[in-house]
Amino acid sequence: MQSIINGKFIDYYELTMAQGYYLSGRYKEQATFDYFFRKNPFGGGYTVFAGLSDFLEALTKFTFSDEDCSYLSQTGLDDKFLKYLKSFSFKGIIHSVKEGEIVFPQEPVMRVEGNVLETQLIETLLLNILNFQSLIATKASRIKQVAGDRALLDFGLRRAQGLGGLSASKASVIGGFNGTSNVQSAYDFNLNATGTMAHSWIQTYTKEEGAFRDFARFFPDNCILLIDTYDTLKSGIKNAILIAKELEKEGRQLKGIRLDSGDLAYLSKKCREILNQNNLAYVKIFTSNQLDEYTIKSLLEQGAPIDGFGVGTNLVTGRDDAALDGVYKLSIFKHKPQIKTSDNIEKQTLPGKKKIIRYFDENDQFYADAIALDEEENPEMIIHPYHKEKTCNLKGYSSENLLQKVYGQGKKMTDNYSVEQIANYLKNRLLQLPNEHKRFKNPHIYKVGISPKLLDLRTELIQQIQQNFK
Question: What is the pTM of this model?
Answer without folding.
Answer: 0.96
